[in-house]
Amino acid sequence: MSEVYQPDEDSYLLQSVTKKLNVTKKEKILDMGAGTGIQGEVFIEKGIPPKNVTFVDINSQAINYLKKHFPKSKIIKSNLFAKVKGKFNIIVFNPPYLPEDKREPKPSRIATTGGKVGGELINKFLVQAKKHLTKKGKILLLVSSLTKGINLKGYNKKLLAKKKLFFEELKVILLR
After folding, report:
1. Spans of all domains in the chain
2. Which tens digits make up the pLDDT trace of 50-62?
3. Which CATH superfamily groups domain 9-175?
4. Contact 1/62 with Cβ under 8 angstroms?
5. Strand pairing partners for 31?
6. Would you say 15 and 42 are in contact if contact means Cβ atoms under 8 Å apart?
7. What number of H helices and E strands is found in the chain?
8. Between the CA atoms of 51, 94, 136 and 71, what dihedral angle is there, to the nearest 10 degrees?
């Protein structure tokens, strides 16, 4: 399972915010770039039926892991929203956000690298996400101070949490 992105400081910061969200059982949740599924799992633990929680990842090994651990949820292998249908009340995304580092092994780059300056993948996500949000829907997005070039135009944003690490600052932003 070494190829599936394992939860780390970023995942746990996002998860701490996710745990505080007020949700109703009717809401539809999308865990984008799910990895091991720790964000979506929080919603299931909060009482959202597993069938209302969709997990998306581009990594085949992550998909296999998710199918094993969340058999009643929808699991989609997709590059962002390419194969995702429908609208969601909440979309949670801990994206690959680091600027490209050619020294990093290619297999791990898919989970960490967001593009040349880090924000390119997030920008694609933000453009595509608008079509998949309900009218009052919201996005929980994790970003890093190392990530450059993020375009949040068209979204209302609110900082929900931040954590200083020795080389970067992580932030969880609520977007509407």
Report:
1. 9-175
2. 999 999 999 999 9
3. Vaccinia Virus protein VP39 (3.40.50.150)
4. no
5. 55, 92
6. yes
7. 5, 9
8. 0
